[in-house]
Amino acid sequence: MVTHNNNEGLYIEQGVHPPHFDKTLDDDGRPKRTGTALTASAHIITAVIGSGVLSLAWAIAQLGWAVGPAVLVAFSLITYMTSTMLADGYRSPDPVTGKRNYTYMEVVRANLGGRKVQLCGLAQYVNLVGVSIGYTITASISMVAVKRSNCFHKNGHHVKCNTSNNPYMIIFGCIQILLSQIPNFHELSWLSIVAAIMSFAYSTIGLALSIAKVVGDGIGRTSLTGVTVGVDVTASDKVWRCFQALGDIAFAYAYSNVLVEIQDTLKSSPPENKVMKKASLVGVSTTSLFYILCGCVGYAAFGNKAPGNFLTGFGFYEPFWLVDFANVCIAVHLVGAYQVFTQPVFGFVESWARKHWPENKFITREHPIVIPFGSGIYYLNWFRLVWRTAYVIVTAILAMLFPFFNDFLGLLGSLSFWPLTVFFPIELHISQAKVPKFSTKWIALKTLSYSCLVVSLIAAAGSIQGLVGSVKKYKPFQAQN
């Protein structure tokens, strides 16, 4: 392996090639990065506009007009602010010329150290595995929705059209087994761009169908405080649903767990932190606009009866072909989003294995395979093939066992939002910017962090209560009604 000295990053930033410069390698001897603000924005949009957008009409219905949109705006502002803090931690000690930190854990290790590194790793990788399961569930629900939509169109809306999710989870898993053999994040830009286009497509269709419903049927029964106690829900259900809605909104903005890995795809010049801040602004502002429109217009269309998933909950039956197309777009988008969230898991395990067993040929050897028609060479690694295939299979089986859409999203959002989106970025900023203890800025940042902790805890409580209720009524591997 080619080794470069630590000053080469400075050469690259200044546009000067160091001695023994190799155009195929980066400033630290790794393969050259080619990412731009466009590809980073595509990765962010792919990660952010996911299955979370589908539950926002339901979330607004629980919180009402007074609180729902305000919570959406607050989460978007917090997410953007903390993402800029995290972007500055990619290089340390200086955010422009410092040493690169390739993963979220390495950023925390370089800037904070101690037990926080293990806590960060636990929060990040548990969440990433959870997202893999959640996206498998959501993709299969969208595939099933296509079949059920055609059934309803043919036989009438009163027919049950029972369909099992399991075959579609298996199909999704098979696709992911193939795509998971893409060696690393740097080669996923094309997939993220396709996925981002799909996310715009189904969000726009959902928004258009909601507007059409409002124009045709009028605004549904809505209120400033959301679902009405004694009419729609009991008092206790109202509280739990509000808590769960916070978790769903938190999940909808979750991309901090892959932000550093996305930043690691960017070219070294201009500085990665500046490009990542631009990409975050584009990504978060774009998704926030879609979220507010989809959440608010969806609530206006369905009122307090808004379904948990407004494209697969059959608030819309017609035009059935457009609903089908939207659900196909969701499935295609989630094919790409799954890879965005699982590549960091793959990379972490493979790096750990190479570090502990550097002489093991099964783990380290790359076998070159010539791709026909001059398409290049693919490097087959047996450990990568076996481990990634096993991971996809396990997540698919877990998705089959626990296919609870809203409750699962809320729990994932609540568990990841505070530590990964708020706590660690704020602590990184305080450390890197040397914010004086008990200064006005320090107090404000700490207050924000602890306030978000409280929100995460109550959101987790609401989601767990919802999961417990769903588990009591659920029979594994049974067809969906």
What's the topology here?
Elements: H1 8-13, H2 37-48, H3 56-88, E1 91-92, E2 99-100, H4 104-111, H5 115-155, H6 166-179, H7 189-217, H8 235-252, H9 256-263, H10 272-302, H11 320-356, H12 361-364, E3 367-371, E4 376-380, H13 382-401, H14 405-432, H15 440-473
Antiparallel strand pairs: 1-2, 3-4
Helix pairs in contact: 2-7, 2-9, 2-10, 3-8, 3-9, 3-10, 3-14, 4-5, 5-6, 5-11, 5-13, 5-14, 6-13, 7-10, 7-11, 8-14, 8-15, 14-15
- Named CATH architecture: Up-down Bundle
Structural class assignment? mainly alpha
Order of helices and strands: HHHEEHHHHHHHHHEEHHH
Shape: globular
| Full CATH superfamily name | Amino acid/polyamine transporter I
Question: Care to describe what's here?
Answer:
The longest helix is centred in the first third of the chain and has 41 residues, at 115-155. The N and C termini lie far apart (57 Å). The strands form two sheets. The protein has a two-stranded antiparallel ribbon with strand order 1-2. It is mainly alpha-helical and 481 residues long. Strand 1 and strand 2 (99-100) form a beta hairpin. The chain has one domain: Amino acid/polyamine transporter I (Up-down Bundle), CATH 1.20.1740. The chain has helices at 8-13, 37-48, 56-88, 104-111, 115-155, 166-179, 189-217, 235-252, 256-263, 272-302, 320-356, 361-364, 382-401, 405-432, 440-473; strands spanning 91-92, 99-100, 367-371, 376-380. Mean pLDDT is 83; it is low at 1-21. The chain contains 15 helices and four strands.
